[in-house]
Amino acid sequence: MPDPRTLRDSTQIVLPCDLLESVRDDLEAEFVVSVHRAGGDTCRIIGSPVEIRAVSDFLARQGISLR
Asked: InterPro entries, per this entry (predicted)?
Protein backbone atom coordinates (compact mmCIF):
# COMPACT_ATOMS: atom_id res chain seq x y z
CA MET A 1 0.00 0.00 0.00
CA PRO A 2 1.44 3.41 -0.93
CA ASP A 3 2.52 5.88 1.73
CA PRO A 4 -0.18 8.59 2.10
CA ARG A 5 2.52 11.30 2.33
CA THR A 6 3.77 10.37 -1.13
CA LEU A 7 0.28 10.63 -2.60
CA ARG A 8 -0.36 13.93 -0.83
CA ASP A 9 2.93 15.38 -2.09
CA SER A 10 1.99 14.53 -5.67
CA THR A 11 -1.45 16.16 -5.44
CA GLN A 12 -0.76 19.40 -3.60
CA ILE A 13 1.66 22.27 -3.20
CA VAL A 14 1.79 24.13 0.11
CA LEU A 15 3.30 27.60 0.23
CA PRO A 16 2.77 31.03 1.79
CA CYS A 17 -0.31 32.75 0.36
CA ASP A 18 1.55 36.01 -0.25
CA LEU A 19 3.68 34.25 -2.90
CA LEU A 20 0.51 33.49 -4.88
CA GLU A 21 -0.97 36.99 -4.88
CA SER A 22 0.52 38.06 -8.21
CA VAL A 23 -0.11 34.78 -10.06
CA ARG A 24 -3.25 33.27 -8.49
CA ASP A 25 -5.66 34.43 -11.22
CA ASP A 26 -3.41 33.11 -14.00
CA LEU A 27 -2.86 29.90 -12.07
CA GLU A 28 -6.57 29.19 -11.65
CA ALA A 29 -7.33 30.19 -15.26
CA GLU A 30 -4.63 28.01 -16.82
CA PHE A 31 -4.74 24.90 -14.63
CA VAL A 32 -7.44 22.64 -13.20
CA VAL A 33 -6.57 23.20 -9.53
CA SER A 34 -8.15 24.53 -6.38
CA VAL A 35 -6.42 27.04 -4.13
CA HIS A 36 -7.42 26.94 -0.47
CA ARG A 37 -6.20 28.87 2.54
CA ALA A 38 -4.88 26.21 4.90
CA GLY A 39 -4.88 28.41 7.95
CA GLY A 40 -2.88 31.46 8.78
CA ASP A 41 -0.72 32.53 5.87
CA THR A 42 -0.47 29.11 4.21
CA CYS A 43 -2.24 28.11 0.99
CA ARG A 44 -2.68 24.70 -0.61
CA ILE A 45 -2.85 24.23 -4.36
CA ILE A 46 -4.68 20.95 -4.92
CA GLY A 47 -4.98 19.04 -8.20
CA SER A 48 -4.11 15.88 -10.06
CA PRO A 49 -0.46 14.79 -10.12
CA VAL A 50 -0.19 15.91 -13.75
CA GLU A 51 -1.59 19.37 -12.96
CA ILE A 52 0.58 19.73 -9.87
CA ARG A 53 3.72 19.03 -11.94
CA ALA A 54 2.62 21.63 -14.49
CA VAL A 55 1.81 24.15 -11.73
CA SER A 56 5.22 23.53 -10.18
CA ASP A 57 6.88 24.32 -13.52
CA PHE A 58 4.67 27.41 -13.94
CA LEU A 59 5.57 28.71 -10.47
CA ALA A 60 9.27 28.13 -11.14
CA ARG A 61 9.01 30.18 -14.36
CA GLN A 62 7.43 32.95 -12.28
CA GLY A 63 10.39 32.88 -9.88
CA ILE A 64 8.50 31.18 -7.04
CA SER A 65 10.65 28.55 -5.37
CA LEU A 66 8.91 25.56 -3.85
CA ARG A 67 11.89 24.46 -1.75
From this structure: VNG_1110C-like
